[in-house]
C-alpha cells in the first residue's frame, strides 16, 4: 500500500426522520443566516422542503430559499445565487437535493467567501480555493456522493464545458441521509444513481497501483452490494433495506475510502463529462455509455486487473486471464443494459455521431491538446477519439 492522507470530516446523520435534525446540525456549525438551495419540484411535491422550512420558521432562523438547480449544474445559476447570498448576508449554505444541488451549494459557498474571484476560474485551475462558507446537505438521491466528497462539478452553459473541482473546502460539514426520502424517485434516477456509485468506485479500482489488498476488498464488496441491492431498489423503491444500502454505498464510493493508497483513474468520468457538456445528457447515463468502450480499449494494459474484477465481483470462474477479463467487461455492460442504462451513443439518445463530432469530443476532453487523462492507461487525444469511436453505435 502506498502512502496516503485520509480526511473525511463530514458528520453523517443517517436514518429515518433525520431531516428533522437539520437546524440543530446547522447551529452546531454556527450557521445564523441560511441560504437553502434546491432543484426542481420533487422536494416541493414530496413535502420535504416544507418540513425543512417549518423548522427554520419555528426556531426563527433567517433563511432564503433558492430553487431551480438543474442537472449538470449551471455556472450561471451559481453566480446569480452568489449575489443573492451576499445581499442576504448568508453565513451557511444548505443544499436540499442530490449531487447537482450539493455541487451548486459548494460553488455558492466559494463565491460568497471569495467575491474578488471570477467563480469559473476555480474550475479552470486559474485560482485556488483558500476559504469558503460552511455547507450542509439533506440528500435526496443516492448517486454522486457529493454529500461527503471533496468534489464539485459545474457546467459553463455559455461554452458547453463541464469541469470538476477537487478541494477539501468542498467537504460538507454534515450530510443528512434519510433513505425514505428516496422512495418516490423515478426509476431512471435510481438507475443512473446506481451507475454513478459504481463508477466512482471503478474509477479508483482500475489503477496501476498493485498490492493494495484491503482497499481492493472494500471496493469489491461495495460493488457487489450495489449490484445486488440496485436490482432490489428498481423492483421496489420502498424497500428500506435496499434504498439504505444504496445511500450508504453512494457516500462511501466518493469519500476516498475505496481508493486509499492507490492512484485513481477517472478517465471514464472525463470522457463522460464531455458528453454531458455537449449534449446535456444525464451524468450517470454518460458514464454507462462510455465505460464499455473505455474498458475494451484499455483492458489489455492489465488484463489481470479486469480478471480480478470478474472473479471477485461477478464470480466468474475462468482460468484464462484474457477470457476472464473480456467476460468481466461483458458482465458489467450487460448489467447496465438490464437496469435500463445506455451503453452506446444510440442508446444514450444522441444518435450516431459524424467524424467531426467525435473529433470535437476528443479535442474538448483533451482540453485542446493540453492534457492527457487516466492512469490505468494514459490517454491522449487520439486515444480519446478511439474510445468515442467504439461507443459510436
From TrEMBL:
Keywords: Oxidoreductase. SUPFAM superfamilies: Dehydroquinate synthase-like. Gene3D superfamilies: 3.40.50.1970, Dehydroquinate synthase-like - alpha domain. It holds the Pfam family Fe-ADH. One of its GO terms (molecular function) is metal ion binding. Its EC number is 1.1.1.2. One of its GO terms (cellular component) is cytosol. Residues 192-389 form the Fe-containing alcohol dehydrogenase-like C-terminal domain. Residues 9-179 form the Alcohol dehydrogenase iron-type/glycerol dehydrogenase GldA domain. PANTHER family: ALCOHOL DEHYDROGENASE YQHD. This is Alcohol dehydrogenase (NADP(+)). It comes from Cellulosilyticum lentocellum (strain ATCC 49066 / DSM 5427 / NCIMB 11756 / RHM5). The lineage of its organism: Bacteria, Bacillati, Bacillota, Clostridia, Lachnospirales.
Amino acid at each position: 500500500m502506498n502512502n496516503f492522507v485520509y480526511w473525511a470530516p463530514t458528520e453523517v446523520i443517517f436514518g429515518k426522520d433525520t431531516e428533522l435534525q437539520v437546524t440543530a446540525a446547522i447551529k452546531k456549525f454556527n450557521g445564523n443566516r441560511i441560504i437553502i438551495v434546491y432543484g426542481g419540484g420533487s422536494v416541493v411535491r414530496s413535502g420535504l422542503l416544507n418540513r425543512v422550512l417549518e423548522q427554520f420558521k419555528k426556531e426563527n432562523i433567517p433563511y432564503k430559499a433558492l430553487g431551480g438547480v438543474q442537472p449538470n449544474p449551471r455556472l450561471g445559476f451559481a453566480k446569480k445565487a452568489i449575489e443573492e447570498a451576499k445581499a442576504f448576508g448568508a453565513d451557511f449554505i444548505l443544499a436540499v437535493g442530490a449531487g447537482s444541488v450539493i455541487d451548486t451549494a459548494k460553488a455558492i459557498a466559494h463565491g460568497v467567501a471569495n467575491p474578488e474571484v471570477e467563480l469559473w476560474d476555480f474550475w479552470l485551475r486559474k485560482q485556488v480555493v483558500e476559504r469558503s462558507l460552511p455547507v450542509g446537505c439533506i440528500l435526496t438521491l443516492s448517486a454522486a456522493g457529493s454529500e461527503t466528497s471533496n468534489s464539485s462539478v459545474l457546467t459553463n452553459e455559455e461554452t458547453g464545458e463541464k469541469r470538476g473541482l477537487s478541494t477539501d473546502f468542498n467537504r460538507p460539514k454534515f450530510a443528512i441521509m434519510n433513505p425514505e426520502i428516496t422512495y418516490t424517485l423515478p426509476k431512471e434516477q435510481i438507475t443512473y444513481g446506481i451507475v454513478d456509485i459504481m463508477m466512482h468506485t471503478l474509477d479508483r479500482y482500475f489503477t496501476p497501483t498493485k498490492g493494495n489488498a484491503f482497499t481492493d476488498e472494500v471496493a469489491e464488496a461495495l460493488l457487489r452490494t450495489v449490484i445486488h441491492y440496485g436490482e432490489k431498489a428498481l423492483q421496489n423503491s420502498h424497500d428500506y433495506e435496499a434504498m439504505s444500502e444504496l445511500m450508504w454505498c453512494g457516500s462511501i464510493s466518493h469519500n476516498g475510502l475505496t481508493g486509499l493508497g492507490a492512484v485513481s483513474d477517472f478517465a471514464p468520468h472525463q470522457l463522460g463529462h464531455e458528453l454531458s457538456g455537449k449534449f446535456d445528457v444525464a451524468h450517470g447515463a454518460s458514464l454507462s455509455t462510455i465505460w464499455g468502450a473505455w474498458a475494451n480499449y484499455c483492458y489489455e494494459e492489465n488484463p489481470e486487473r479486469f480478471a480480478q474484477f470478474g472473479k471477485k465481483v461477478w464470480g466468474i470462474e475462468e482460468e484464462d486471464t484474457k477470457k476472464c477479463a473480456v467476460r468481466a467487461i461483458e458482465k458489467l455492460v450487460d448489467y447496465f443494459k438490464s437496469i435500463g442504462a445506455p451503453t452506446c451513443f444510440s442508446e444514450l439518445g444522441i444518435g450516431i455521431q459524424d467524424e467531426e463530432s467525435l473529433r470535437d469530443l476528443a479535442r474538448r476532453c483533451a482540453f485542446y491538446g493540453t492534457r492527457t487523462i487516466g492512469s490505468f492507461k494514459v490517454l491522449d487525444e487520439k486515444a480519446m477519439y478511439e474510445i468515442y469511436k467504439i461507443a459510436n453505435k
